[in-house]
């Protein structure tokens, strides 16, 4: 019975990988690092990281990671590879780092600070507020969607959403 179950799991993973679906090697819940929303760390592999409703400090590290910051004022550092970062309600600081990152924070009534980093990043902070700050970084094909009053620097492709 165990061999059949293992064969099914391996088969599902192979189908997912063949279909182009990313499968994270680790699921990390920042609540496992403490109830106060303290530092939370990813691994050297591809991680799926979930923040808490507290003020998190999330360090994804290496690997192609996906991070959900959740609520409260969070700090997220993606690391050297291609990361996908989702901010949440409240004032977040989101840093992509190296690699080609996708960073999104569309929560309203907050002031977000976003740094893309050295790769070619896609950043979306179009949330209806006019007070976010975005620095796309050192890439040469960065794109950003933003609101009229947001401050945007070092971004080659700009799309203001009014």
Give the topology string: H per helix, E per strand: HEEEEEEEEEEEEEEE
The percentage helix is: 10-25%
Which structural class do you get from the secondary structure elements?
Answer: mainly beta
Mean pLDDT: 87
Strand content: 25-35%
In a nutshell, what does this entry contain?
The protein has 162 residues and is mainly β. The chain has one helix at residues 2-18; strands spanning 26-29, 39-41, 47-50, 57-59, 66-68, 75-77, 84-86, 93-95, 102-104, 113-115, 122-124, 133-135, 143-146, 151-153, 157-160. It has an 8-stranded parallel sheet with strand order 1-3-5-7-9-11-13-15, with no helix packed on it. Strands 2-4-6-8-10-12-14 form a 7-stranded parallel sheet, with no helix packed on it.
List the helices and strands and how they pair.
Elements: H1 2-18, E1 26-29, E2 39-41, E3 47-50, E4 57-59, E5 66-68, E6 75-77, E7 84-86, E8 93-95, E9 102-104, E10 113-115, E11 122-124, E12 133-135, E13 143-146, E14 151-153, E15 157-160
Task: Please characterize this protein's 3D structure.
It is a single chain. This protein is mainly beta. It has 1 helix and 15 strands; from the N terminus they run H-E-E-E-E-E-E-E-E-E-E-E-E-E-E-E. It has an 8-stranded parallel β-sheet, with no helix packed on it. About 10% of the residues have low confidence.
Features:
162 residues; mainly beta; seven-stranded parallel β-sheet; 30% strand; globular; eight-stranded parallel β-sheet; single chain
